[in-house]
């Protein structure tokens, strides 16, 4: 525990202050004057043009293949907003099948390949609706889209007419599961009560082709899960695993209805895949110092595909579902990441993504029957030579307690070959903290990093304690009050850079940025650790962990409390960890970027911080996108968001 001084600390003063500065979330929580005051200003073409060019370098989504392997449907943001496209054969000309300004993605496909199930959001609200569309194209049919409600596809039945979806339309902090008939348009509630529920898997009787058992998952924390099993024949539900444990589990059925595949770190430091039968766990993947990051079994219960997170690099493996023997997969040279997408219901075709530092992701379809690998989707690289992209180098820095913190570093040749010049100065550095906080920065094709490299910066992505991919001790090191013990990892990155990356005795200038938890890390870096960074850009970051938890969307509150702490029981620690507590320390320039419709980090988090900085005449700027949520999804707004960030760092770090 961190010692608390006996005299009144700044967080105690905030705790004793008047009512919170805002309530609610979303655009409706702001008045028109505030939206107008902080609206995004235009940027000159010389700033936006290089960003537009590099954003045009992209890969379409992995996509879904029809059961006969003749068509693929995928999401693509080439129009400026994510929409759904169709390919009538490998590397054919793509045909757009959805349109408009609302982001639309594929959620599923009927087993006969005749219809698509689509998810469509509005202005970043993260309250998507569910739609039906013929694979031949045409108008979308609304299954359910309710304002303020999250509707998500859960399962598509073999009968071609029945689907299951979840929605928080009865209680904002609880998911109800519905059965929906695509022909009669009738929905029936099949679950009730409190909790965030989903369908984890369905076991289909191989003889009848009908549903035999359901696995229902329930989130009890940011990673903790409970699972329950419903037997169709007896109409009974029983607890299966995780009850009262607060343990991380991910479960699917195995080869038979009484066998389960369980991914968990319960029995070791890293996640491992187990067979669970007769209440006994048997490991089916090797014991290695790396996480099994994810897994999936095809609907025919033939093959298990799993991905290994090896220090940020992704390796794909396959084993047989009957005896867990290894299955040979195609090999990809010089790949940073190889991972599986979806497998057709008949088990024949699987999409595979391959990514390297020098090219956008390549999407393939693997035919298990012929063992033929075919590249279907071609990435776009107009006007950009991606072979010149800089690859990440894995380095580390030491925290104050001696712990080595891994970081991926992107350096241009101009920033690596200047040490011999007696007149040279160090390149400025931008440290980018990932979101989550259970996220992980990984190497690979990184357009965002390359923009900073092109502008003359060294770009650094640390994986501080609390990041995923380094074992459960590392992952859980920042839970609740324990964050007080490791929050200094944020400051230590800058101290390491200033001490060790000098050129001719000159320290580099260091900036800090990030989104979501990375935005919070930026605000903490600029306030609690003021002086460690020379400028900061916070994107959708939390300024006060108490007001954040009290105002975030109800469905997220239970998940975030398990990570950060309870706003009542842990109020003092939360305030001690809140950037707004140390706002009077901020001296270096700060830019705050926020979406008005953000359901995760309320826009009030940005406004309350900015107003406090304005009252104290601290150099700062706030930009609010009225038509965005938790980050920018529209291409025009992405250009502005990146443009403000780059322009801000050029002004304060390059000059």
From TrEMBL:
Keywords on record: Hydrolase, Protease, Serine protease
A GO biological process held by the record: proteolysis
Superkingdom assignment: Bacteria
GO MF, one example: serine-type endopeptidase activity
Domain Peptidase S9 prolyl oligopeptidase catalytic span(s) in chain numbering: 445-653
Transmembrane segments: none
Lineage: Bacteria, Bacillati, Cyanobacteriota, Cyanophyceae, Pseudanabaenales
Matching Gene3D superfamilies: alpha/beta hydrolase, TolB, C-terminal domain
Protein name stated in the entry: S9 family peptidase
């Amino acid at each position: 525990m961190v010692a608390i001084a006996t005299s009144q600390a700044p967080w105690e003063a905030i705790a004793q202050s008047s009512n919170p500065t805002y309530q609610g979330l979303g655009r409706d929580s702001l008045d028109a004057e505030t939206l107008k005051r902080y609206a995004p200003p235009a940027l000159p073409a010389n700033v936006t043009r290089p960003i537009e060019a590099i954003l045009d370098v992209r890969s379409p989504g992995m996509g879904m293949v029809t059961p006969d392997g003749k068509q693929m449907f995928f999401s693509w943001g080439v129009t400026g907003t994510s929409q759904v496209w169709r390919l009538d054969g490998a590397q054919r000309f793509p045909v757009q099948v959805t349109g408009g300004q609302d982001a639309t993605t594929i959620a599923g496909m009927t087993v006969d390949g005749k219809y698509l199930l689509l998810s469509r959001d509005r202005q970043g609200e993260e309250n998507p609706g569910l739609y039906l569309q013929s694979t031949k194209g045409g108008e979308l049919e609304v299954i359910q889209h309710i304002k303020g409600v999250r509707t998500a596809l859960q399962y598509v039945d073999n009968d071609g007419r029945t689907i299951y979806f979840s929605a928080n339309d009865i209680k904002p902090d609880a998911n109800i599961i519905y059965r929906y008939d695509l022909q009669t348009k009738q929905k029936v509630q099949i679950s009730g009560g409190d909790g965030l529920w989903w369908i984890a898997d369905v076991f289909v009787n191989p003889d009848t082709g009908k549903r035999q058992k359901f696995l229902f998952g329930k989130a009890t924390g940011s990673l903790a899960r409970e699972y329950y099993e419903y037997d169709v024949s007896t109409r009974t539900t029983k607890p299966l695993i995780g009850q009262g444990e607060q343990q991380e589990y991910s479960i699917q059925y195995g080869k038979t209805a009484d066998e389960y595949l369980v991914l968990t770190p319960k029995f070791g430091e890293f996640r491992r895949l187990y067979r669970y039968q007769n209440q006994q766990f048997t490991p089916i993947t090797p014991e290695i110092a790396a996480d099994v990051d994810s897994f999936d079994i095809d609907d025919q219960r033939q093959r298990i595909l799993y991905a290994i997170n090896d220090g940020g690099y992704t390796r794909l493996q396959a084993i047989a579902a009957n005896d867990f023997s290894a299955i040979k997969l195609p090999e990809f040279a010089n790949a940073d990441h190889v991972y599986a997408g979806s497998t057709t219901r008949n088990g024949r075709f699987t999409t595979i993504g391959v990514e390297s530092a020098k090219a956008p992701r390549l999407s393939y379809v693997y035919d298990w029957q012929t063992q033929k690998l075919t590249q279907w989707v071609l990435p776009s690289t107009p006007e950009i030579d991606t072979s010149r992209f800089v690859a990440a180098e894995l380095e580390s820095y030491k925290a104050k307690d001696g712990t080595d913190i891994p970081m991926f570093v992107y350096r241009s040749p101009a920033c690596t070959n200047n040490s011999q010049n007696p007149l040279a100065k160090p390149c400025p550095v931008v440290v980018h903290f990932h979101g989550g906080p259970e996220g992980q920065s990984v190497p690979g094709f990184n357009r965002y990093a390359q923009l900073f490299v092109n502008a003359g910066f060294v770009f650094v992505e640390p994986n501080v304690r609390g990041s995923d991919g380094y074992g459960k001790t590392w992952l859980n090191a920042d839970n609740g009050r324990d964050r007080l013990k490791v929050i200094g990892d944020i400051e230590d990155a800058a101290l390491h850079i200033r001490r060790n990356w000098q050129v001719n005795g000159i320290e580099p200038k260091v900036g800090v940025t990030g989104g979501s938890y990375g935005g919070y890390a930026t605000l903490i870096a600029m306030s609690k650790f003021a002086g460690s960074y020379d400028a900061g850009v916070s994107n959708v970051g939390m300024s006060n962990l108490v007001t954040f938890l009290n105002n975030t969307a109800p469905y997220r509150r239970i998940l975030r409390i398990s990570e950060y702490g309870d706003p009542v029981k842990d109020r003092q620690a939360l305030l001690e960890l809140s950037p707004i507590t140390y706002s009077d320390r901020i001296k270096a320039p700060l830019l705050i970027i926020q979406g008005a419709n953000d359901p995760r980090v309320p826009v009030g988090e940005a406004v309350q911080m900015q107003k406090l900085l304005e009252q104290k005449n601290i150099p700062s700027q706030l930009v609010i996108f009225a038509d965005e949520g938790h980050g920018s999804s529209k291409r025009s707004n992405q250009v502005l968001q990146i443009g403000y960030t780059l322009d801000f760092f050029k002004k304060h770090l390059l000059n």
